[in-house]
Design a protein that fits this description.
Elements lengths: L25 H5 L2 E2 L12 H12 L5 H4 L7 H17 L8 E5 L5 H7 L5 E6 L2 H11 L5 E6 L12 E7 L7 H14 E12 L7 E3 L4 E3 L2 H10 L3 E8 L9 E6 L5 E4 L7 E3 L10 E7 L1
Parallel strand pairs: 2-3, 2-5, 3-4, 5-6, 9-11
Antiparallel strand pairs: 1-7, 6-10, 6-13, 7-8, 9-10, 9-13, 11-12
Amino acid sequence: MARYKRDRNLALSSPCRQLGRTLLRVSSSLKMSAAGVSDDINCENPKELYEKAEEYWANAPRDDDGMLGGFAHLHKPDITQSRNFLSGLHKKGFLSSNEYAIDCGAGIGRVTKHLLLPAFKKVDMVELVKKLVEKSDSYIGPNPSMGEKFVSGLQDFVPEKGKYDLIWIQWVSGHLTNRDFTDFFIRCKDGLRENGLICLKENLSDSGKPLFDDEDHSWTRPESLVIELFNEAGLTVVASEQQRLFPKGMYPVSENVRNEANNFCYEGSSKNQYAHFDLITLIYDLASLYLILCC
């Protein structure tokens, strides 16, 4: 499952309105509001919220347009920059092996097919909605590098210990409460091979607080909260990059990498070199960003 969102604070005259839907719908973005009691991001019993999210995705069109909420034209710039980002991780020595990856919240396998399978010898998928997993068989087609397909929500999924060189999580972590977010990333740490990485590509809120979407029942977190949850999971950001060539007025998407060292590497939208910082500090433009993590 993956989507991109329009900033609800933009005027309706914005060109983005003509696009109809962002990874869910423009109309759903306009409904987004600060999380309240019934949509508490810290709620102890999120079962109903998770069930409503599953229902939403079970009824979404099972194609690229459905997975991108009506923004199928975002597919190419998304995949192109992600490929370049992975290549940069190899060149900088952050990612040393291409044996095994997993796509978390995979939907029909859009990222699996176009990004991970060409780059790794074996790729697994985990997806909550069984109908989307079934559709992935025809969408991806026969591929000897295709590994296991797990039907599970990320709040319940436990990666096999020491299995993956890369755990890719794109446009899905907003469905998790804060506690389940942290617990999932802790389990992901255990699922990494030596020198493995976790990559999160996610929407970011620029409001300073989490915003709740009452159509697909997910949150868009601010940067500060994402970093706080990473720290709670024992992860450190070591590389990030801003997503480019997306329409103006969209929410930020973040992609970061974690490492044992307390260094942070940032690649800005207009630069092709990494700058190193002693403190864990993220520098985002209000656009899409990559977060790469490892334990």
